[in-house]
Batch of 3 targets.
Target 1
Amino acid sequence: MMHVGDVTETLAAEVGLRSDEEIVRLRQIVRDHAIAQGFSLVDQTKFVTAASELARNTLQYGGGGDARLSKLTNGVRVGLRLRFVDRGPGIADIERALRDGFTSGGGLGLGLGGARRLCDEFEIQSEPGKGTVVSITKWKLR
Amino acid sequence: MERIPILRMGNCLIVAIQVDMHDRLAIALQDDLTERIVKDKAKGVLIDISALDVVDSFIGRMISNTAAMATVLDAETVVVGMQPSVAITLVELGLTLSGVSTALNVEKGMALLQQRRR
């Protein structure tokens, strides 16, 4: 368990991302926890979709990695946080990578920007040559 | 490798996606459908996604590409049964599936295909 400010974060699941099938597995695990946290159907779908986009990035651009799902509470609200970690080549220009339509891999370029729009909080840290950490958070609407 | 089954009814091909597809499976379906359009001389393709609770940009792109390829092969594509929560998420994601015809359910989708072919 971890306390940052008034937010308590509890690790709920850890999923390796090394194949297409593991992206599907992550979607199912995230869906189950989103249901357990009481998310609405639309919010479940948004968070699972964002998870799917970022998991594919981790696999395609990061050369595989891990996803860590945590349950959040600040005493009043509950939420979920999902953190993607890879040790791939990193992203040189994050602002550019976040722009819709930018892709270095032949995709649609909606992954990062799209995932950001589907969540409440979005953080990205990347260092060329060392890897990338992307974190998304969604709070349950009261 | 597992495959999504494609059914033929008259000159239409029908696909009901019932599983959470991984990316290779989605690509295999796209390839199978284009092959079957030619082999069966199909004029319409109906894709039922009512069982999908997530459509991300990859699956969205597969659907758009399939529709575009079908058009080039002189067939029409209709996507039916999209869940409302999936529709909301797709639009927010930035994917509008432009160029893809949609209908609320299989019955309306088949009617649409038949009416266009008359």
Target 2
Amino acid sequence: MSSIEAVKNSAWQQGARDALPLLGGYIPVAISFGLIAVQSGFSALETVLISALIYAGASQFLFIAMVASGAPLWLVLVMTLLINARHLVYGPNIAPYLSNSRWWPVLMHGLTDQIFALAHTRLPQLQQKDRMGWYISAALIAWGSWIVGTAVGAVAGAEITSRWPLLGEVMPFALPALFLVLIAPRFTSLQWSLTMLVTIVVALLLKLIGMTNSAIPLAALCGVSLFYLVQAKLKAEGKIHG
Amino acid sequence: MDKSLWLLMLACALGTFLLRALPLIWMRRHLLHRSISNGTEAMPVWLTVLAPTMIAAMFGVSLVPANPGISSWFATMLGGLCTILVWQRTRSLGWPVCTGVAVYGGVVVLLKMIG
């Protein structure tokens, strides 16, 4: 194997390794989605296609629930897009690390919350030539696991959840563990630590009071506001300049 | 699904894809116009603050266990603590997550056996 191939392979392997923890969170949720969609009257093929094409967890559940309840189709479309509106800030944040390849916009189909969180941390650490390989590898593993999990849920979801109920309870902890590892390096200053802590607590509280879909953007906006408030206070005290 | 539902599903899929792809295309053009070699310098500051806070918010939301209760919150706390301890030693991604899930699962199973 040449050294160039070795580098390429290592970027792909690195992407696969980095995405593996996502499976713990994706597969149980995808199985639940497959099961609920079939129980709501969708066929297994339709269910898998929804997962493959829309590929956005919360909005897929909403799509199924609203269609099953007979909601107007335009409202289903609006609500689906509103839930996914937080994705608007993901692409611009990783844009500085991407080449001018025409494939990048197409690859954004795989830019879920979790892949964004991974990419935002990992892409700056990789060399430009390795970034696309890393991204495709990580995104494909996540997308594939979502599709396979949906198919398994649609075909055998009821049996799996009754036979191994603990699996669905324990494996999703991979997601908070992964996010924790991704945000840990940010606790570098009082300003960032306060911002991150308040964001986490606000998101947690919003989720607990049932505002699951708006928790992420609202908590993030609280965090950004606090960041600027602390910055203004530090500037006023002369501790930072600019 | 009838024809209208297929069209709705395709519209939702296209809309979601555009929400992900169009902002990237816009930012790439913005960076190109500014002709700055280090793209992060050309980004609005609020956007660079928003990204880590979005990830922190994802963490906050994901902390709530599927079946909230004293045992699952206790398991979440211990799992999180072990995750961060292993991360401090390894500074890697995989091992801390594996350890966190193992500890979380172990505590959940243990507490179910006890109570």
Target 3
Amino acid sequence: MAPRTSAKICGMGHSMKRKEDPRFLQGKGNYIDDFTLPGMLWLDIVRSPIAYGKIVNIDTSKALEIDGVLAVLTGKDLEAYNLHWMPTLMSDTQMVLPTDTVMYQSQEVAGVIATSRYAAADGVAAVEVEYEPMKPVIDPFQALEDDAPVLRTDKEGQEDNRIWHWEAGDKEATDKIFDEADVVVREKMHVPRIHVASIETCGCLADFNPVEGHLTVYMTTQAPHAIRTVLALVAGHVGLSEEKIRVVSPDIGGGFGGKVPVYPGYVIAIAASVVLGKPVKWIEDRMENLQADSFARDYHMDAEVAADSSGRIRALRIKTLADHGYSDAQAAPSKFPAGLFSICTGSYDMENAYAEVDAVYTNKPPGGVAYRCSFRVTEAVHCLERIVDTLAHKVGKDPATLREENFIGKEAFPYQSPLGWEYDSGDYQAAMDKAKEMIGYDDLRREQAEKRARGELMGIGVCSFTEVLGAGPSKDFDILGIKMFDSAEVRVHPTGKAIARFGTKSQGQGHETTYAQIIAEELGLPAAHVQVEEGDTDTAPYGLGTYASRSTPTAGAAGAMAARKIRDKAAKIAAHLLEVSEDDLDWEPGTFSVKGAPDKSVSIQECAFAAYTNLPEGLEPGMEATNYYDPPNLTFPFGTYICVVDIDRGTGEVSVRRFVAVDDCGNIINPMIVQGQIHGGLTQGLGPALYEEIPYDEDGNNLAGSFMDYLVPTAVETPAWETGHTVTPSPHHPLGAKGVGESATVGAPPAIANAVVDALAHLGVTHMEIPIRPDRVWEVLREKGVAG
Amino acid sequence: MIPPQFDYHAPGSLEEALALLGELDDAKVMSGGQSLLPMLKLRLATPANIVDIGRIPGLDSITESGGSLRIGALVTETALEENATVAERYPILLDTAKVIADPLVRNRATICGNVAHGDPANDHPATMLALRAQMVATGPKGERTIGVDDFFHGLFMTSLDPGEILTEIRIPAPGERSGGAYLKLERKVGDYAVAGVAVQLELDKNGKVTRAGIGLTNLGFAPIRASAAEKALTGATLLEQRGFKGAIARVRGIFSGGLDADEVIAAAAQAAADATDPVADRRGSVEYKRNMARVLTARAIRQALSRAGG
Amino acid sequence: MARHNVTVTVNGEAHSREVDSRLLLVHLIRDELALTGTHIGCDTTHCGACTVLVDGVPTKSCTVLAVQADGADIGTVEGLADANGMSALQEGFMQEHGLQCGFCTPGMLMTGTALLAANANPSEAEIREAISGNLCRCTGYVNIVKAVEYAAAKMAGADAPADGEDN
């Protein structure tokens, strides 16, 4: 689609170079660890070496002898202020610092406050903690057994390790289809615990001014406004009041969902600043980040598909166990404890479906963040896209063909899914066709047959996912009761330049550029003249933040709506300046002209000047508007990914030879940025598919607690991604856009896993658990007698 | 991650360094620091003193003389990678350097440091075993030369005395028809080896293996020499020859030992696998690692042969 | 505990400080010299966010002591642009969308700068190998590779690659 605006205006559809880049490229970004305040102190944290046990004693005397160590805060100290526990975003509770029991390895045990980073670290090494270890519960299935110890003895009425049960769909009707179906396939699969591992870790700088009773917290948060409200709710009893709390989210070095939760370190830093009356900085290191911050995924799924003998899907049934660690500290909307897992029917039309999830406590770090996905969509898509391949294998059909035969047709939109979603728009076959053409699907199948005859292992994996994002409509979506709208405030200055502020927070997505382009599209002001700001709760309008690909669907829409309000006002001014009625005006981006007399015109800049200098009678001066956008529905981007892998029969190594991603995210604001988002998402899908996992041993030791074992792919492992797109606008979004940040993270893992399984399918292999490590592949090769 | 307190010393000469090592308690020698500093930051090592030999002149040269390649204490992996003699005559060293950590670490990491660290997960020890290198240790009483087979004792344990510095590694110059290769299976760039195999072969003019060296990485508590595998190769003619010459060679082979090249290589590879004593960890099971020793040994032998120029 | 006088030239400017033996070079640069463009992303010398040039050689500054750098000529991201504007590589990153959150970017730029100084026309494989000690979590590396290629072409005097309007 050709852009509607000129390159000078640079509205939607232009690959505008990013406005934020010059500062990042010259080392002038402002990330959390770059902030320094006079008199600033440092917090470092003592952490538990064991997964479960009683704290017998904490001896801080040696630490306090160290030059520069000023204080050591323990749970007992916080208990005096009733700050030793805090609520999670899922209304569970989580310790800030323990008073008696530790529940996972690397849990915060004490905070050391010192005059420097180095002294604080020495202090941490000198605090002596005596533990009485207890046998931890690590396996979530074991946690459900009758003889499992109850972990959350702090919770009144908690008699087992269950957190909640959630279900969606008509169980009875689904079971009936299964009973009578020609074909039923079943796979058990685990989407393991992983970590966002943004290159910047988490941290904050808390600055409490005891004279004013005012707290400023600079922190790595994707949701500054919500954090401010949570702080007011949690610490109201010690005198923190919301009008005296300012949360500033500076430049963020990657978020991906990991910077949504409130971590104990933030709260300890704030408590220390309040107690000591000085600014306190806390910057976690990588090992703390991987070992204690919120994990993602960890869903054990038992999935079944019922179909007729030709492979026409009739029903889906999934039973899931969700390992949440010792507290449900997900960042999911209140009504959806299993997130949007019910998107699990995906791109396929079926009669019915039923999904259930049981959540359990174990002795692992709390969490369940929506790592670059709208709350459990990754798990749902992996599950479905894997088992659809199993079905194709079972009925002897090419996996692409089987998908095509089951697609929801483009005429069926808006489509009502069996689990209750109304898909806004889609054309799944178009994306499939484009992906097949780009990769040369038929040739690859021929090559595979030839190689197979020679004993070589090559696989082609297909995934046709449907995403759901843009949380969300206020009737269903809130976090701790706060509705999940988002906001924009646009102000045009007299000289025709503008500032636009949003309730979201970029972590690399390029909001300063795309939001400016949205305003440019609607007002015809050059995007270069629109300054975008986010992240400071004192200045930005209230919003729920950036995660779940919600920025474009919510705040982006709010920006468009606010700009339209301004345009409406500008029309009144234009009519006044041109001495015609508003009805007699034509609008081209940036210019009002008189119908039939195009040379009689005024620019949006002239209207802006007039808004301050020459107003029609009765019109309020100024040119500014605010919009809080409550989306009418979610958006449903989709795509087809095709991956080609080669397997080394000797070592079991999988190499991704090619990967084609065709995405449809509706109308595109900035093609360059959209493509970048897809590249990044694919790489964050490659990681869990082949490399990344946080496993625990039976004692609860984290076995991937540093970048030594948490295997983030480098440029060498990562293939040269190939991307394409189709455009199916969202009918309900003001710009027809859908959001894109997460599609690729969701769609890539099953495409890669399907390719590996496809390479081995002729040996009778139907499933491989991710991450598909070489040793796992080799075990299969050996079992099948083909290892080199 | 902050290192603990220590004192730092930067001697300007070898004599000064040795004197410091004699005087100071609990001193640790540092060259590139790419192994030591991460250990300090994790507080896995807490020496009271660090003697940085990085400023001592004359220790950073690679020279071929007196029938040996001499690698000084301060030669970095990058310098090794960029050295023309190494590329031409010691490709196994180039193979090894290229798979250590990542290019930035290799800019500071040294070959001697890699060896002196005594970590069986490091890559150079296996290569030094294959090459039958000599370690030159300099101490208060002067220089002594330690054969590589006497150098590694166990996890982080070598024959170096606390007062000694590994000042040079000497690698015997390769014969006319010789070739070597180092193959490493790693989970991603920057990883330690799941398994690593170094093979160095010398052939006579008929293509018969006159000398074989095989070293194994990260497959036991110390770097391993696969002696039985070496023995299996020695005396065998492995070059693939086509046509009449090949037929003759095969017939000769059958008369001499009854095995063809593929079988000899497979037997040697199996012998290498049998020499391993790996532990199961995130890189794989004992069974997997043993088999990877086998697979990589066979591949490394073939590559070494091809470089020996059939 | 012994303190040491350290003099380093950073981006052409000499600085002297008295430092602890254990002070890491990255902390000297960030905390003492207030050049916060150089970042820290891990504890185990894997991520490369802290990469600077030490006497022209790209080095992970979290794994070098400040005292080891005494007398060295250090280049950081702040020194890449000059009065004429951003360097060809910086421009390449901007034109090819080689950065998103920007946190790994300074390290990538320093590694890329050294690569181009040593190899004016690197292949894709050479670029990928050269940056394999620098982790990026946002970009998927494709556009970082393109950014280096852009800079190589520009420095060779060729026309800059076409400014793609679409993907």
